[in-house]
Predict the 3D structure of the following.
Amino acid sequence: MSTVLITGCSRPTGFGQRTAKAFASAGHTVFATMRGVDRGRALVDWARDQKVRLEVLEHDVNDPVSNRDVVAEIVAKSGELDVLVNNVGMSSFGALETLHDAHIRDTMETNFFSAVDLTRAVLPTMRHQMGGRVLFVTSIAGLTGIPGESIYCASKFALEGLAESLAFEVERFGIHVSTVRPAFFNTGMSMDNTDASSFYETGTAYDVFNQQVVASTSDGEVAGEDPRIVAETILEAATVAAPKLRWEPGTSAPEIKAARATMSDEDWRAYVMEELGMSDWLKPAA
Ligand SMILES: NC(=O)c1ccc[n+]([C@@H]2O[C@H](COP(=O)([O-])OP(=O)(O)OC[C@H]3O[C@@H](n4cnc5c(N)ncnc54)[C@H](OP(=O)(O)O)[C@@H]3O)[C@@H](O)[C@H]2O)c1
């Protein structure tokens, strides 16, 4: 059985908390981390009732000290750290030209640099123990661009490139790297959590576009698949005997991947806009 660190476990409907439960139920020792450990009380109660090994730790992934403290605490308590699940992420939408500078930087810090820092904090332990699994929850937005999600996609493409490259470097130490690329899952991430107007300027040439992007993101989330599918995929990716680099959970992500592979960039652009009901945006501005 493994010792597992999972980030971003604050929300009962999110992938992080569901993944923590999946690992703990499978007999692993789980450290579920979040900002504000009080929000993890129900998770701790669940673990006690289920008689599984799960602890909640305070953790802000954007704080390098917090990253090192969490790793040191886990190693001190367990003597090992076998699996890291970099799950934290934040939404970003709005046409690039309209986004606030601070929001762009926050998104890259939270979605990309935090995972870089935490992974670097964990690797020495895994290298010394000659084994480990590092997982990144990226997105299908790390495979294809999405209108109005340029920065979110940039952060997830960046993680995909990082993971693929890192895999070359660490395999000889018994460390395996994977990305899990969900498409649409009903976690409430974008809509429960997000005030989109704080992301971008209004009163611009993109107002209609931005409204359509928010509406289609909301619709996609509400109609999304069950997040437990992602939790089970992460568990499988971390424990399967023959690890693989990329995982697409559920039905929508494999379908998007397959469709993308059959089309030119230009056909794909038209297809996506049609699917989102935004084809008019591709016509020349009046
Ligand atoms: N839902 C989907 O359909 C979907 C699709 C593709 C990919 N994803 C990815 O899946 C991952 C999990 O998302 P989710 O849908 O499960 O939504 P979520 O529950 O909102 O997960 C995001 C988590 O990140 C945490 N977080 C953000 N900034 C943090 C920080 N600085 N330090 C510590 N924790 C921080 C949030 O905590 P707070 O509550 O403190 O903000 C929250 O627990 C994300 O990486 C997301 O990009 C989701």
Notes: Residues 3-282 form a domain with the Rossmann fold fold (CATH 3.40.50.720). The beta strands are 3-6, 29-34, 54-58, 83-86, 132-137, 175-180, 246-247. Residues 139 and 181 are 4 Å apart (CA to CA). The mean pLDDT is 96.
